[in-house]
Write a structure and sequence with these properties.
single chain, about 210 residues, alpha/beta, D-Maltodextrin-Binding Protein, domain 2, six-stranded mixed beta sheet, five-stranded mixed beta sheet, 8 helices, about 30% helix, binds 1-O-pyrophosphono-5-O-phosphono-alpha-D-ribofuranose
């Protein structure tokens, strides 16, 4: 059986932190690598292959089994509800999901408009509170929505809070914690159990 481990990694800022963690966990990975354009990296020394995906697409690769494991944000996992095992909280890229809007505004409309990249998370949040809202799905630059009158609130990731601040918005409700998680395809988890359990054990020691 091919025992190679395919790992779906998020391209961009999370990649470096996750890659560092794997090195710290003792994986023999090149310390300098130009990954600016490459989408697949073979590491023969470890019989590992990385595929570099958009963060939001990592759970898709893992659910479909083209990646055995992956690193995905809890925000994406909550939003997509894919059939993957969540194995470990890596406690990197920590941030939270919050609602935000223009300062000193109250939601007194019948169905206030909520702009978000996370329509499922936002719907579930307001439904649980018994509040009826209209969800407006956007793909990015969410902070624009209240500024130009598209929405009354946004539901989005807040990390340093800088983006809100620079766009004159304030946080209203803290919705949930977010960090990067190690996830696995259920069949891979069974078939490559020894390798995956070993990797989890080693990474666990590096979680800060
Ligand atoms: C995310 C998020 C906020 C920002 C928060 O956007 O959607 O806009 O980061 O970070 P901060 O609190 O540290 O300012 P991202 O950079 O992913 O870009 P996007 O607007 O395309 O979603």
């Amino acid at each position: 059986m091919n025992n190679q481990l395919t790992i779906a990694m998020p391209k961009g800022r999370i990649f470096e932190e996750a890659y560092e963690m794997l090195i710290e966990a003792g994986f023999d990975l090149p310390t300098t690598m130009d990954i600016s354009r490459k989408l697949m990296l073979e590491i023969p020394e470890e019989n590992i292959r990385f595929i570099l995906a958009k963060p939001m697409d990592v759970p898709t690769y893992v659910e479909h089994g083209v990646a055995d494991i992956g690193i995905a944000g809890k925000d994406t996992l909550l939003e997509q509800q894919r059939k993957v095992h969540e194995l470990l909280d890596l406690k990197i890229s920590t941030c939270h999901i919050a609602s935000a809007g223009l300062p000193n505004t109250v939601l007194d409309e019948i169905a206030p408009r909520i702009a978000t990249k996370y329509p499922n998370v936002a719907s579930a949040y307001y439904r649980e509170r018994g509040e009826q809202v209209e969800i407006i799905g956007l793909n990015g630059s969410i902070e624009l929505a209240p500024m130009i009158g598209l929405a009354d609130r946004i539901v989005d990731i807040v990390s340093t809070g800088q983006t809100l601040k620079e766009n004159g918005l304030v946080e209203y409700e803290y919705i949930t914690d977010v960090s990067s998680r190690l996830i696995a395809n259920p069949a891979s988890y069974r078939m490559k159990n020894e390798r995956i359990v070993d990797l989890v054990k080693r990474l666990k020691k590096c979680v800060k």
